[in-house]
């Protein structure tokens, strides 16, 4: 199996849709380092997100 098939699909922590496109973002939580993904729409609207591990909230 190729490496791309082994990776888990990323979903926006704000709205739950699959994250794709150049304006989406994946970054480490500033508190615990867990990977957080956000879609372009939630980023543009500054929707709040919550880290799934430590419950840190950010815009």
UniProtKB/TrEMBL annotation:
Cited InterPro entries: HVO_2753-like, HVO_2753-like_euryarch, HVO_2753-like_ZBP
Small zinc finger protein HVO-2753-like zinc-binding pocket domain ranges (all copies): 12-54
One Pfam family from the record: HVO_2753_ZBP
Superkingdom to which the source organism belongs: Archaea
NCBIfam families: HVO_2753, PRK14890.1
PANTHER family in the cross-refs: SMALL ZINC FINGER PROTEIN HVO-2753-LIKE ZINC-BINDING POCKET DOMAIN-CONTAINING PROTEIN, ZINC-RIBBON RNA-BINDING PROTEIN INVOLVED IN TRANSLATION-RELATED
UniProt name for this protein: Small CPxCG-related zinc finger protein
